[in-house]
Specification:
The protein is an alpha/beta fold and 48 residues long. The protein has one helix spanning 11-22, and strands at 2-6, 26-31, 43-46. The chain has a 3-stranded parallel β-sheet with strand order 1-2-3, with helices on one face.
Length: 48
């Protein structure tokens, strides 16, 4: 499964990303770089 998460470092997004990675999904997180870091195992995109 492939998953794109917008804002994947915050509360709900972070939990979603963590669970998807745990399940072995290919995850891309796209954020503005304002809150935390993208979890390990996630492809990162950043808009500035």
């Amino acid at each position: 499964m492939r998953l794109l998460v917008l804002g994947g470092t915050g509360f709900v997004g972070g939990a979603t990303v963590t669970e998807a990675v745990r399940r072995g999904w290919s995850v891309t997180g796209f954020n503005r770089g304002l809150h935390g870091a993208v979890p390990s195992g996630v492809h990162a995109g950043c808009a500035r």
